[in-house]
Amino acid sequence: MGTFTLIPPMSLGNLNKAEKLSLLKRYMKLMPSGSDSESPDEISLLADSGVPVLNISAGQVTRMNGIIDELTELTMQASSSEETPEMQQVEADRDTAGNYIVRRVLDYAKLPLAAERTAAQRMEPALRGYRDFANLPTAQETEVINGLLIDLAKPEFADSVVTLQLAPYIAELRRLNDRYAELAAL
């Protein structure tokens, strides 16, 4: 008996463009030709007759060759859009604005004025969960920031927001988060 090698299952989604292209080319080379030749094991592509043995029409072979040609052109092209630089900047800016708000509240012991310390101390339990929001995946981060904005808008924190002078930072965070969500939807 011979030996068998178990090939673990794979997903095409795990392959990059060059790997997909290589896989398709190798697959196409494995198709036997429909012609009667001296060597029945000969490997070739015949777009004019397809692969009748495998019930693959000439149209399917032609279409696959077209896909391979398209992939060859696209293999090393960047896939980012025009909005990517703006999106990256908005992401960085909203992290900065959100972190400023959260750090200002969580680091209440370092605030110089007693009124600010008291205001931040009142808000600290509600904002503690937002400490590392900037490390989340961006889609989650958008939703977490929405939650942060809702918490900051609660009536019990209105005086604290005024005392800590957070209103312009909250408005900027809301604007940046909305802009990021808008860019992500494109």
UniProtKB/TrEMBL annotation:
Pfam families: DUF6261
InterPro entries in the record: DUF6261
Identification of the protein by name: Uncharacterized protein
Organism: human gut metagenome
